[in-house]
Amino acid sequence: MRDSITASEVSEPYAQALMSLAKSSDLIDRFGEDVAFLRSLLAESEELQQVLANPLIKPEAKKGILRQLASEQVHPYTLNFLFLLVDRGRILFLDNICKQYQALLRELKQAVLAEVSAPVELTEAQQEAVRNKVKELTGAQQVDLETRINPDLIGGVVIKVGSQVYDTSLRGQLRRIGLKLMGSS
């Protein structure tokens, strides 16, 4: 618990500083793309996470790795921001900072994050249907999807928006039927 509080305390000011730079440079969406790219990079490579978090690896080596992996993909301001995080020993919070930036971006754009669990990868049409349903339920202008494959689900999806959970899975439907049957006996 304490680790998540510390991560939040460290990540929030950096995310706000990045947002401030994005606003003043008119690069809000570009930085949004950059942080999405960085999060996917971190998610794909456990090794990269370990290298960035390792205090024994010199800052210049970390900067070289980041330059090699990201310089072609991210805006130069974003790359400089990464170097600043390395210099200040905060690069291990990169994923949390990126998450915080995405939350600030959603707030700015009146968007919500819908975490969707499905038994298989969703098609574009299914993703659009989920977005439309979430817009209808929440009144949001825009919906960002974060999908996860959960093979334990038989069919349908489970959608989490903030603290609200919309369970349209077969398992959820069967559970509700079971509760109704138990309640009527």
Please explain how this structure is put together.
It is a single chain. The chain is an alpha+beta fold. It has two domains: 2-106, Peroxidase, domain 1 (Orthogonal Bundle), CATH 1.10.520.20; 111-184, no CATH class. The protein has eight helices and four strands, in the order ααααααβαβββα. The chain has helices at residues 2-25, 28-44, 46-53, 59-70, 76-87, 94-108, 124-138, 170-184, and strands at 111-118, 142-149, 158-161, 164-167. Strands 2-1-3-4 form a four-stranded mixed β-sheet, sandwiched between helices. α1 runs antiparallel to α2, α1 (2-25) packs across α6 and α2 runs antiparallel to α6 (94-108). The relative contact order is 0.11. The model has no long low-confidence stretch (mean pLDDT 88).
How far is the first residue's CA from the last residue's CA? Answer: 42 Å
For the report, how would you describe the main beta sheet?
4 strands, mixed
The name CATH uses for the topology of the largest domain is Peroxidase, domain 1
The CATH homologous superfamily of the largest domain is called N-terminal domain of the delta subunit of the F1F0-ATP synthase
Helices and strands, in order, run as HHHHHHEHEEEH
What is the level-2 CATH architecture name of the largest domain? Orthogonal Bundle
- Low-confidence runs: none
Whole-number radius of gyration?
A: 20 Å
What share of residues are in beta strands?
5-15%
Count of extended strands: 4
Query: What structural class do the secondary elements suggest?
Result: alpha+beta
Shape category: elongated
What is the helix content? 55-70%
The helix count comes to 8
